[in-house]
Amino acid sequence: MNPSLAPSWKNRLARLFPPEDLLLDAAHRTAYGYDNSQRSRCPEAVVFPRSTEQVQELVRLCNQVGIPLTCRGRGTGTAGAAVPTAGGIVASFERMNRIIEIDPDDRLARVEPGVSNREIQKAAGELGFFWPPDPTSADVCTLGGNLACNAAGPRAVKYGTCRENTLGLVAVTGGGRLLHTGVRTTKGVVGYDLTRLIIGSEGTLAVITEATLKLTPKPEARLTLQALYTDMHAAARAVAAVMAQPATPSALEFMDGRSLDMVRRFSDPGLPKEAGALLMIELEENRAALETAARAVEAAARVPGCLTVERARTAEQVARLWRTRKALSPALRNVAPRKINEDVVVPVSRIPELLATLDDLSHRHGIPIVNFGHAGNGNIHVNLLIDPADPRQNRAAEHCMEALFDTVLALGGTLSGEHGIGLVKRPFVAREIDDPTLEMMRAIKAQFDPNAILNPDKALP
What we know:
Elements: H1 7-16, E1 22-23, H2 26-29, E2 45-47, H3 52-65, E3 69-72, E4 89-92, E5 99-103, E6 108-111, H4 117-125, E7 129-130, H5 143-149, H6 156-159, E8 166-173, E9 178-182, H7 194-198, E10 206-214, E11 216-217, E12 221-229, H8 232-243, E13 251-256, H9 257-266, E14 277-285, H10 287-301, E15 306-311, H11 315-335, E16 340-345, H12 351-365, E17 369-374, E18 379-384, H13 391-410, H14 429-432, H15 435-448
Parallel strand pairs: 2-4, 3-4
Antiparallel strand pairs: 1-2, 5-6, 6-10, 7-11, 8-9, 8-10, 12-14, 12-15, 13-14, 13-17, 16-18, 17-18
Helix pairs in contact: 1-3, 8-10, 8-12, 9-11, 12-13
């Protein structure tokens, strides 16, 4: 399904969207044809919705004409979910960005999809609350994008993902029906849970136009710890030990030896040469409980192979401890700007086995593999540092990816934790999900989107 937009359909779009909210010139459209996956396809039109009613009319038009519709926020996703592979229309929600309501008494906020994560945190923070999902791109990424791929970030280990922190949605199905899902309360079991179904569906079922978010009170106290280890296997054992004790960290971030070497090449993190892995641990508790929690976590982190566990006692020390982790992404971009980045997840207890396999794959195929991520969830970001212009490296990377995904599934894990499936992992989905389940998912897709106009070529094989 890839029809051209005939002039009559452009005229209909022009009646629905004023000139400032409609792009038809190719030079302007190109900017909305790619995301952070480095894949691209120029759409035939770009629109900027400003209301639910306008979105509903747009979806109805796409159904009548048979034109695919791809929705996007700021394009920070790495799996290609925002790439309009079939051309058609891109709806960018950057102008549908109101914070409609913040209700501190009921601990909720109602917002539109174009609001950035940072703006939500700022508005909630002024009233003593926060919304737990905090992806790395939180300064620019939008709520709609967060919900589309269930992005979460470090705090998910303690507070959960978007699914656990969203009470309800207003959404337009692919067939043009207006849905109101969920509740304004933290309990509710009336009907099927369409809220959680739509979240994480990568824009293939419905277009989210409003969300009711569950807010969490800011913690009274926070403590940051940095633990260094001789190698990544010792650090992996420490992750399992930390997660097995009662005090759940609000963040438990992991960097392997290659990550540390990468940072050392571009800055001075002040780490001893023998450090082969690092854990960043944050605790958020009430003041009375924080010291007890800190002692328990410190004790759990001191597994064989632990070099040091350091507490930050001032804001300057917190910034210093986090400096190494924050320096990693820029260092990786300098070394391998077109690296392959996968975010696989395994049970926390199986992290050592995953890392051992990755170490073996790196040596066997001659590809540097840098591993870091949200270890408290078992969510490891696997980075293959390749040059895509080198055919040998491309072939080796394909073999690595095949073996990585096989290993993850054998360990009881899943192929993506928060980046989504999009285009990149679509060929591998059938390895994780069996045929009867996929058949049911396709039936759900057909019910929501009978003419398959929403984000074609994504998520399901």
